[in-house]
Amino acid sequence: MDRLLYVLALGLVKFFQALPLRAVARIGRIGGGLAYWLDARHRKVAIRNLTMCFGKEKSPAQIRMLARENFKRLGENYCSAIKTASMTALELKDCLEFSGAEKLKPGAGTSRSRIIAIGHFGNFELYAGATLFCRNSNSRPLTAL
After folding, report:
1. What angle in degrees, to the nearest 10, is found between the helix axes of 60-84 and 21-38?
2. Which among 123, 121, 120, 118 is positioned nearest to 82, based on CA atoms?
3. Phi, psi torsion values for 135, nearest 5 degrees
4. What is the pTM assigned to this prediction?
């Protein structure tokens, strides 16, 4: 049984990696929307948590819509992470956009180290290679500063 699951999972990974990123993201959103309807337990948890946060500001219909969108984005992120893990740096460069990178350059008398906080939602694997595309004014990678 374990071998069968492994072969099925490997086949799914290879399938996603063979498709264009946009197609993979769309499939992930569809899968996330399907998961919203099929996974009643987690759907209820998401709705309950959102109600605790936004119950006085949003209607029950808006909260359900937020929960559904969250499931869709999770599906999109999971599938996109599978695809981007197999992409080269050159392929990834077309998918990434940076703004404010100049603010990371150390000033006079400051440490060269930086801690960067990112949102809890997204493809964390992409952030690891982000400095390959983030340049300073001398066209050097920021990691070389």
Report:
1. 140
2. 123
3. -115, 155
4. 0.75
Amino acid at 67: A
Asked whether residue 24 falls in the same domain as residue 95, the answer is no
Identify the bridge partners of residue 141 per DSSP, sorted by sequence position. 135
Percent helix, strand, coil in the chain, to 5, is 65, 0, 35
Per-residue pLDDT reduced to its tens digit, 64-85: 999 999 999 999 999 999 998 8
Q: Are residues 56 and 11 part of one domain?
A: yes
| Residue 135 amino acid letter | R
Burial 103-124 (b: 16+ CB within 10 A, else e): eeeeeeeeeeeeeeeeeeeebe
Which helix H or strand E contains 51, and what residues bound it? helix 40-54
Residue 42 has pLDDT above 70, yes or no: yes
Q: In DSSP terms, which residues pair with 135 in a beta bridge?
A: 141
Q: Can you give the residue range of the structural domain that contains 8?
A: 2-86
